[in-house]
Design brief:
8 copies of one chain form a homooctamer. Chain A is an alpha/beta fold. Chain A contains 11 helices and 9 strands.
Chain lengths: 253, 253, 253, 253, 253, 253, 253, 253
């Protein structure tokens, strides 16, 4: 949204030609940059409360660089790039100041911010192999301003490992439960806490895990209340949502 | 949990035999009533922040009555019974003071409470046929203490109907998006608001909707951030979670 | 197997014409009665260690009666009929002395035997609605000679209910874990005991439970060792196997 | 169809031996060239209104060259080769004058024609990653004679990007909506225009997108009228059909 | 849209305050009636080129009557109600002048119109059992103004039955191919004509037809060009689209 | 095909105008009766070697009667009606001389013929519940002229029951193996005989049998050679094919 | 089976100790060679009417060589090896006289035999890409003694290409119909011939072909009689069965 | 569990403060080592009767080494590592004394133990390609202390190969039946023995085997009693369970 446009809208409000509410919608619903191959939303913080994030899979390094520069040029302070292969990260490093987290496959421009407020997000995993999805979730939440506690390899077949961490879990504003195979972690965690649990099925497993379907179904059918589910391996989505819940807890509208 | 048990635990804390944190876990993790066919959790408000709810499907009226009485006897103020067929509701009315909501298939003992706080939950549906699931969600949230705004039949094939309600949606602390068929509602709503969106796929549709699978998959793959998903037709789960988020927004820990 | 046939085989053994091992196979592999519509195995205790059982579904009352009489006529002491609808049980009662267990849909001729040995089988369920499958399992094991302990409605979303029974579980020779929805019970139980756990997914649930598929997949992917799975709702199969394991525990070959 | 054959048929018509209608069917239903491994249809423009196209996948460069030469030899002016890997395109360039479009994986002999008439086809995509399928569609339509307008990266989670192009969309004779993930684009577009919308699900996505199945189901269940669907990633089929509709709009029979 | 609103918009255009194109969008995107349970689109002919249709499944007779009256009240000349059970049709007949087509499960208020133009739509079926879906398609197209030719029971296992009708098919502006079981009809028809073929899989069949999935997949994979697919049993969608194509053929923009 | 038409064709052959081979094709590819709702093939014995059969499911008694009379009127000696519900059979009995086989749901006009030749078809089933599908197969083969031997309830879990019939099986020209549940019968039978085995999966079973899918997949993956598969519960198809193979065995072309 | 064993059996028959029928079963059911990793059946021609074939996939070259030599050593004249990768074929050529057919991935020791009798098998394909599966079928049938006619690329979207070959098809004793994508070929062919049609779905296609599932389902649901199906890409199975049918046609038992 | 902790518990028991049963649970439910990326259970022999096993897939060589050393350090005598790729085994060999079994992909530290007791486990496979899964099962059972008998390549299509081993099978305390493709082996074996049969579906096969799903479904639907199933290719799980059953047979509680 160019400055002139905004001025014009506000002038109309002043002259009474349009109502303030209409102006708000106009401002929220308008602006993006047309790069031909992409239309990044330079106004996203207004509509969504968090800046535009780049999904790196299926985009060339050049396309990613183009979008990142458009966002930075429009004044966005920090750019998060998910599903960024190591090789593309190398290429991007030539033109952009990029921090790369290889387990999470995340690139970050602008550095991790200080956590906002006192609340925290807890990230738990069923096993060691689920950790890269967990890291995507944890880093996303951190990049958006949340404090994160990691509790890994506490799968339900050794229930004592999870119970030993019940105290920590009950301090969180949101818990992200990451598990493959039978995905039972979400249900047990859901029964231990009184905050929202975001379940992330992972594609970890073999045979009848069907690349995460078994865990996905288990989580959708969780008999615990307060549990909702995101796509298989979608650490980013879980981290985004957990941060949103965490930030809004204790914040008056 | 009987009074003596509690007293014993607290005495041990006083004498230093156990630490307060241990005592908290003991108290939170213990009590339920064993009815033989069921073990309702009479202590659930402590562990989960909301009282035990009865899932009516697959239980006889006698079993439901038994569980309800156990909960009321343990001091629970209000009992919500979901998936309660009209005929069982009739039977229950003989022995219990039950309010019955037929579109939502919900029975309620103890009446709807006054909403807590100023926040609200919005419930939107794609079509008229999704309304009974939406009502299950709305009534659950209301029974747990949330103010609810209903916005029905605003499916994306007539996008102007949804946009006309964008202002209302942006005021909510949580939005429940209920849709069958192609389930696209969640994505469009997710792009309009900055609060969590809980997507509820419904079994409305025919042919390749596969009883809600098409909507479920669409919602799991939503390209909007802040969207998570519950089971097909799970209005209760969505209402429970939306209320949890709504109640915790603006509440310091 | 008619007496003459057996005599002939044994004579051949005596005369050295065939080896004893061959004779054993001949005797084990031969006999059944041809009723036209069915060939019940009157020799099953020799080959399988347990008498022939009638699967009632899809057979008429007349066919069931015919098979039962063939088995009784061949000297079988007790006949178990599974998946027996109440109405067929009524019809059978006219001609046979049948005990009927309606929750388990089981008919029994010859009465429940005294348990053999000191061992026991434990049957646990996730919820109240899983009980009819659990009863099919429990009664099957009892009819075959096992002592059975029932522990119902101890689903993992309230993990304290299960942990409160951990002592009982650790006394069993085999545990049958019966659960629908997310089927997580098997994994948690599997981590608590050191005997075989037989997981029975049930069709309890809705939406993405897909009539038991979610629970089935979860159980097949259990991260606990010592867990194996039978078909959805197959209480009989689990009871049969649990009894077999229970009977053989502590029995020298 | 050799000249003699055609003459013979027409002579029979003249002599009254066969009716003109019969002759038309005979002519339309006959001719192809038998190359052993393939039978390209050298008469396709008569039966189908558009020349034979070569599907490059699973054919060797030699086979493709053979078919192309058979078609050119039979007088076909332009040959379109889809799903043509870059390496095969290189090989073909030695013997044929081939233009290669690498994003669309399309090879073209004979060059792009001038658009026929004033109508146009619009191609919209949900995201940047859908563009190679969109290009297959766009180039196919162009190769067959349509004017094409590309509107890329206008997914529904940022609905303002799509609405900003509503005017352009309403000018098209046919719209091709290309989207992966939740595939909601087709429904929203279908609600904005009054011409046929051809929905192309793409395999873009991960986890529960199941290589395009989520988008496919969403599109089949579209609540907008005027929407039909082609196979996952089938840009060619959509471009072919869109051109057919575009060409026939405004053409008297 | 009330008259005053329209007047206001047009005045702004006249005064140059808004451009005519903007006004067009404003007018097209606005109006619907809010009935609480439904928001029928009273302006749909402007946006979509065809009046609002009521999907009868899952709506009560009272709801259908309410929507129909809202549409008639807003000046819509003719109301089509699909998936209308015979009993609801009876109820509606008391308050509305309804014509009922029982094979198609269609109710029509306002009568069938005279066909517009000379073009026609052909509807072909694979078997006798597919006819009720075919009738839904045929009547929809007729109600929207198309001339329809029915060619039933011409499945591909007796290919001569279809070839005998090839002449008729080649005269149509659009062909609707309705088939269950293996759904091969669409491919063969697609190879015989040069106009769009809309394939409608039906749930006719058993076993591995999976309620229409076999036919759906076959049609999506059709090797004939110009074929697109709608949902299983979606006769209405096919009829709507076929009419749209038919009406636009030979119509200058 | 009317007599005059045939005469005309043959005259043309005589005069040398058309070749005998062309005439054969003309005669084979032409005739059917158009009843509006159906086009029964009155010439099917020429093209397919067996008369037209009526699939009763989804057709009204009146429609069935109409088709049957058309076939009888065209000189067909015997009419087989499959999937014929008992009630429709009753209705048909009023106007037609119909023999009804209730286990097989088959109606027959014209009586069972004497078997042709000495060969036979064997029909084996895994269990008692598979018998109605087996009877559909057996009666179809008998109605078309084959001698049939039934061997029922010889499932592989009691392999001695099957081996006891190995001699009979090895005498057959074709074996139909009918089984639900795990469908293993086809593989074992396939290893015992040297004639074609036609495997028929049945929908007998529960849970993970998925209405015959488990048996279908097992049969498709049979490690025995000479086994092919028809649709779930398709006794008719198996009987038709088995008869075809049986009749052609020992018949010179 | 060693000579001594056979002699012993026959002596017992002579002496009347066992009946000839029993002896036949003994001889047919016994012999194989135990190689540790495999037990090839050196007596298969007696039980199955065709010699043992080696499935090359998942076996090392050394294992294949071991099995082949065991079979040749037991007197088998010709050894067919299917799914044999080119590299393994090279390795085998060092120790065995192997003819390799690369399109079919078949290795043959002992050479192709002269066809037995006058009958033939026809192999038709829908497209060029189906040819390698077709070649596996054709070569298998030839290796077992059948004359084979190949008719490739006659898919149903250009129905005239198939009809032009109808005469050839009607001369075959068995037809193998090989097709991917929508798999409609089997139904059309099934309607044109009066001999068994063996349908082979192929994994050719993309998107919703699901690696051959679409074709498989279409073929299982074929509305033509006389069609049965083998596994996806199972050219060998089809060739084996077609040869069996072909050889037995015109052969008295 | 540190020594002090254990001492403290035992002191409390001595002083009567806690009951011995409570102490047992405390000891059994506590200890693990937190490595950050993993929490191996150093006390597993107490809770589960067998030491902790490392699942090598998805863990780096360094992580595996870390876990192995933690277990050895805690006094575990033998460490089994499953799904261990050859290259990682090489790396581990530098720091650990590892025996590597390449067909089974198993690494073993501490050597194979002498078998405990006289009982044995039998492992049977359907084909040669199933052997690597069978070896994983066999070696696991051996590493845990069982005597194992291997009987490979006895698939049901050559039933005599299996029957020839019936004597051996009937001597086992548990049978592991490993098969891909149609998975029929489990049912036939289940009918021959009177001990538990653990069925392991393998991903061996192609087309409609769907990577083991066909075998999995067949085994879940086994009509033989005493059969239960583990995940596709889960040789480890089967070996673990078979050993557990074998060890407990003939052992008094």
């Amino acid at each position: 949204m160019k400055r002139e446009e905004l001025k014009s809208i506000l002038n109309k409000v002043k002259s009474g030609e349009i109502e303030p509410e209409e102006a708000e919608e106009m401002i929220r619903l308008e602006p993006f940059v047309d790069l031909g191959y992409a239309r990044p939303d330079t106004h996203r913080e207004l509509t969504q409360g968090a800046a535009e994030v780049i999904y790196g899979e299926g985009k060339s390094a050049a396309q990613i660089a183009g979008i990142a520069q458009a966002l930075l040029g429009a004044g966005q302070e920090r750019v998060l790039i998910t599903r960024l292969a190591a090789q593309k990260a190398d290429e991007l490093s030539n033109s952009l100041e990029l921090e790369y987290f290889d387990e999470a496959l995340i690139g970050l421009i602008g550095g991790l911010p200080e956590p906002v407020g006192d609340g925290k997000v807890a990230v738990v995993t069923g096993g060691t192999s689920d950790c890269h999805v967990a890291e995507e979730a944890a880093l996303t939440a951190e990049a958006l301003g949340s404090r994160v506690q990691r509790i890994y390899d506490v799968g339900v077949a050794g229930i004592h490992r999870l119970l030993a961490n019940a105290g920590d879990l009950s301090q969180a504003n949101a818990v992200i439960a990451v598990a493959g195979m039978e995905g039972a972690l979400a249900s047990v965690v859901g029964g231990l806490v009184d905050c929202p649990v975001i379940a992330v099925p992972t594609s970890v497993g073999y045979g009848a895990s069907f690349h995460g379907v078994a865990a996905l179904l288990a989580m959708l059918n969780s008999c615990a209340s307060g549990v909702s589910v995101v796509n298989i391996d979608n650490g980013y989505g879980a981290g985004y949502l957990a941060n949103m819940i965490n930030q809004r807890t204790g914040k008056e509208r």
